[in-house]
């Protein structure tokens, strides 16, 4: 524990920048449960925790427990995933049958509340989504989320991935309020696990900005995409996609085609450097730059005519 310096300017060597994620990780490593409703004072030299804050103890043991309770189930899931990649109707039906068979075996051996059952449900949701049966895919993902949370993984990376998948499914079904809620929940969990300046949340903020744009909340979309840019880090490809989205938000929400061209041009330069001038993304950026130029000229002519 490194307390905040009392004298002199704040320095990254003398104060922590991620107190809540660090406290969460400390509790995990020590195997204790702490009161999440308490306002902890991180400025104390003795640390923020007291004995009264400890709610329980979780035994920490090393284990060689496999990811799947039965090798037969793991093989069925792997076969299902291989058929899923083929993506034709017959293979998708076979993949769904294999995943469902694995799920039934898990239910017979361990019961339906096991995390392996949740993993089977995620695979079935992927198959149903590939088959364009989005309502059933949504049902399977919700079941997987409930099972993961029931098994104690409510703040794990796999739950974040399920929330992201749920957000995308709700978006495809035009259930935008639910989509925003799921993306916000994923961001909250990642901030809790990795800290508020993690680059892993940039992609989720980008998706959130797209949803806000679809429903016409352009200011919220700008805020989300600005947050995505600030967290993107060194991921140039993701930055290129985020800048393209920002250009579209400005063009649609503000009719500022000059500014939209500027962001589209920045995206074009990234894709040209990473993919080359003949890549589809680079060509699409070039096409949008021409579109923004044409619309800006039309806007100026319309203003002059008035």
From TrEMBL:
InterPro entries: CLU_prot (IPR027523), TPR-like_helical_dom_sf (IPR011990), TPR_rpt (IPR019734). It comes from the Eukaryota. The keyword Cell cycle does not apply. GO terms for cellular component: cytoplasm. TPR repeats lie at residues 160-193. SUPFAM superfamilies: TPR-like (SSF48452). Pfam families: TPR_12. Keywords: TPR repeat. This is Tetratricopeptide repeat protein. It comes from Mucochytrium quahogii.
